[in-house]
Each structure stands twice: as C-alpha cells, then as structure tokens.
Amino acid sequence: MRDTTRVHERALFVSPRIPSELELQARWFAGDFGKHFVSTTGDKIDIVQFGVWNREAGPDFRDAAIRINGSEPIRGCIEIDLLARSWETHGHATNPAFEATVLHVFVERTDREFFTRTESNRNVPQVCIDPSALPEVFNANVPLARPGRCQAPLRDLPEERVCSVLDASAQFRLRQKANRIRTKIDVHGRDETLFQEIGSALGYKENKLPFTLLAQRLPLRLLRENVENCEALLFGVAGFLETPDLDVYKKSARGYVRQLWDGWWPHRDDLRRLILPVKSWRASGTRPLNHPQRRLAALAILVREWSVFRRSMDSAGQFRLPSPQPSPTGRVAPFSRREKARMRAPHNFLTELEHPFWNFHYTLTSQASPKKMALIGDSRVADILANVLFPFWVAHDAEASTAPGTRLWTEYAKLPAQLSNRRLETAATRLFGNDPRRKQFLRTVAHQQGLLQIYEDFCMQDNSDCAQCPFPEQMAKWV
Ligand code: SF4
Questions:
Q1: What are the distances in angstroms from CA 370 to CA 25, 83, 362, 364, 375?
Q2: What integer is the mean pLDDT of 381-401?
Q3: Most Cβ neighbours (<10 Å): which of 13, 90, 332, 393?
Q4: Cβ count within 10 A of residue 152
Q5: What is the pTM of this model?
Q6: Which residues contact 479 (CB under 8 A, 6 or more apart)?
C-alpha cells in the first residue's frame, strides 16, 4: 500500500493536520513558511513583499512582489490554495481578476502536471509549501497589512508635523480630482459633468460602473427633456423592468412598478440597445439601505429637481471666491451664520430627498418597511461632498482655492470622516502601525484622503518591501 501513489504523499495513520485555507493564508502572510522557495519547475523564488490581504474577489494577496532567479522584483498578486489543481477547478485560469497573479502557492500536488495559465495564457509559477513543518501554535490575530519602514519615524514626529504631511497630500489629491473634473467639463459641460460624477458616486464602489454607464447613456439633457418619465427611463435602461409579470412584486409595489412600466414601454424599443445586462449590478456586499435601486431613485429625483440643486450648489459656491484679506494676526474672517447656512444647502438638499415608495422599500421586490428610511444617508452625502462637490468647486481655480488658509480649504479640512474602509485601514496599518494617535489622524476626510494619496504614491509603487521607498527620508525633511 505504501508504494501506491495514494499513500505516497501522506502517512497512512499519522496524518499531519492540514490547516484550513484561511489559516494557511494567514500563516503565509505572517511569514511562517519563510521567504525563499523553489518553484515546481526548479526556479528560485524569493518573496520581496507579501503584499496586502485582498478581501474581495480575486487572488488572496495583492501588491506583492517576487524575484525569480534573482531577477528584478515582479509586482503582482499571490494566490494560495490547498490543492495545486484548484487553479483550474476554481476557474482562475479564465477569470480576468487573476490576470495579475505572479505566484500560485499550494499544499497538495496533483498527480498530473498542468500549465498554470492566466486568461491571457501567461504561465504562473507554482510553489509547494509544507504545513507539517509549521509549529502548531498559531496566533489567529493577523493584521490586514504589515507596518512599513516609515512607521518608526512617523511615530517620533509631533502631531502637527504628521497632520501637515497629511494636509499637503490631501491638497494635492483634491487638486488632482479637480483637474480631472475640469477636463471633463471641457468635454461634456458643467451640468453633464456634475450629473455623471454624482451618478458615479451614488454607485459607490460596487456599482460605480453601471451608474456611470447610465449617466452616460441617459444624459441629463435627455432626461430633463423627458422629465415626467425620467425615473422610468433610468429603471428601464438599468434593466430593472425586464420582468413583465406583476405577480413577482409585493402588493405594495405593484402600483409603483406599473407606473414605471407605463413610462418605460413607449421608449423601450428605441433604447433597447442601451439596456444594461443584469450581471452589471452587484447587490452582494451592499447593505440593503444602499441597494442600487434606491440610489437610482435618488438620481431620478435629482434630475427632476436639478435647477433647485444647481441653485444650492451656486449659492454654496462662494467657497470659490477669494478669501477676504487676513487680519494682522493672519486669521481669515470666519463665515457668517447666513453664509454657513448657504454652504450647507447642497448637503441638506441631498439628505432631505423624499420618495413615496423608496422611503419605505429596500428593493422593488422587498416587503414594505414600517420605518421611513433616508434615500441617501449622511455617509454617502459626505462622500459626494468630498469627492464630487468640493473638487467641482476647486475645478474653478485649483491652485488658489486649495491653498492653506483659504475658505474652501478651511471648510474642506473640517469635514468629519464618516466611514473607514479596507484600503484606508491597510494604509493606516502600513504607515501608523499601532501608533496610539492613529485614530485621531483619520478623523477628517482631508486626512483620510491624504493618507490614501501617500499609500497610492509610495506603498503601491514599492517593490522593495519598503527598503527603497523614499517616503521615510522625504518625510524626515518635511517642514
Ligand atoms: S512603502 Fe514607503 S510609505 Fe509605504 S509603508 Fe513602506 S516606507 Fe511607508
């Protein structure tokens, strides 16, 4: 029996504990398997950096870097599976999300050899790891990412210095967003640009693409010309009205769906080619309150109330005006109460959107909720302010309006951060590690944006596991 391949690889009676795939990944990331390997084809593989955990679809670790036979570092993703053949059986070979994979790590070999290919037919080197060599004790508390080399110098910097680094990179990021918006305004005009940007922000991360496509395929001008039916057109082109059977809807929704259908059918033939396929939408990973159908209804109201919204934008647009002359002490005169009320107008407009159906429904097919729900919550409005409206105002004069001390920058810098996300947490772990001030550095939108800019400019460009990253030295010189 021992000679057969079936018992060849593992002892028959004393089988070592094979960790679960998740534990395996955690131990790999913790460095328990080491950094130097030999691939299944005999190449020397060195792990330069382990990257960061990818908790979304795609390979397990992204932004990793490896060397093959001492080559220059190759940046990409690392996938870990229990079985070598999982590369094929899990469909990685045909999944575009795995295209950037540079290494496939596995525990159990397959009887036959196979080509670990990506969708573009590129071979991915494979490395076999042996969990039986691991110590039994395992600390399950694995961080999202590893603290980087800059963590130590940042910890020694006084708070104002760290804040000034974050402010500077946030100003840079805001100007970049404004430049992108300005280019778009040149092509599409102010209103269409604003509409597309808000549409895309309403899609949040999961549905950014379908919302952008919708705002491009149904431009504001066309929707305003058909303002009575704009909601039906949006739901129709979104592909949400493709079921002609009213019975699938709850009683409380039938009247509303009927109304949408009546508005959509006269246009359906003309717009058929523009209808988005159902698979463009992602509802998983989205809270019911943020379901794309609710966001779409918000976009429809925005179209109907566009002139009111634009007035609120313009009245708040005094941000763009040059700041009054600072007093001899260098302080800029604060906004008056009336000015502040005007500045909150776009915020209030978005948070106070009302819809008789969507105030009480999560989706077209869900039960009615007894409790009224906001169409766009505070955190989404804060996101729209930070990523669309402020850059839109800055697009008027990027250099002047983001300079420290100007009213626009002062107001932007005060925006409180509503939410964190995985990317931010990863960036914070890389730069601040367990610095007790970490939370307070991320309290404002500006500091979060500044941190993301540093992460993208330095961490995501680095292939040397921090060794050659210039940020720690640049920061030390920062005045
Ligand atoms: S790559 Fe640079 S910025 Fe990122 S953690 Fe390492 S030293 Fe810090």
A1: 44, 49, 12, 16, 15
A2: 82
A3: 393
A4: 12
A5: 0.74
A6: none
Q: Which helix (H) or strand (E) holds 38?
A: strand 36-38
Strands 74-83 and 61-68: antiparallel
Q: How many angstroms separate the alpha carbon of residue 455 from the centre of ligand 1?
A: 7
Which phi and psi angles does 240 have, rounded to 5°? -90, 0
From ligand 1's centre to the CA of 432, what distance in Å?
10
Listing DSSP states for 52-75 in one string gives: EE--SSS-SEEEEEEEETT-S-EE
Residue-level pLDDT at 326: 52
Measure the CA–CA gap between 414 and 412, rounded to whole angstroms: 5
Query: What pLDDT is stored for residue 337 in this prediction?
Result: 73
Higher pLDDT, 142 or 107: 107
- Tell me the CA–centroid distance for residue 150 and ligand 1, in Å: 6
pLDDT of residue 112: 72
- The structure tokens listed for 112 are 């036959």
Tens of pLDDT, residue by residue over 210-245, are 999 999 999 999 999 999 999 999 999 999 998 777
Ligand 1 contacts CB of residue 146 (under 6 A): no
Nearest 5°: the CA angle 190, 196, 197 is 85
Atom of ligand 1 nearest to the CA of 148: 5
Looking at residue 244, what DSSP letter applies? -
In this structure, the number of other CB atoms found within 10 A of the CB of residue 406 comes to 19
pLDDT of residue 15 exceeding 80, the answer is: no
pLDDT at 445 over 80: yes
Pinpoint the alpha helices (H) of 157-189: 159-188
SS3 17: coil
Residue 409 to residues 353, 414, 445, 451, Cα–Cα distance (Å): 27, 9, 12, 17
Q: How far apart (Å, rounded) are the C-alpha atoms in residues 121 and 460? A: 26
How far, in Å, is the centroid of ligand 1 from the Cα of 457? Answer: 9
Q: Mean pLDDT check: name the lowest of 4-18, 48-62, 227-241, 453-467.
A: 4-18
Cα–Cα dist 78/62, whole Å: 7
Structure tokens at 338: 């009336």
Distance (angstroms) between ligand 1 centre and the Cα of 306 equals 44
Collapsing DSSP states into helix, strand and coil, what is residue 476?
A: helix
How far apart CA 259 and CA 196 sit, in angstroms, is 26
Residue nearest to atom 1 of ligand 1 (CA): 459
Radius of gyration over alpha carbons of the chain, in Å?
A: 27
Residues 290-294, mean pLDDT to the nearest whole number = 92
Residue 248 DSSP code: G
SS3 content of the chain, % helix, strand, coil (to 5): 50, 10, 40
Asked if 299 and 217 count as a contact pair (C-beta separation under 8 A), the reply is: no
The residue ranking higher by pLDDT, 189 or 141, is 189
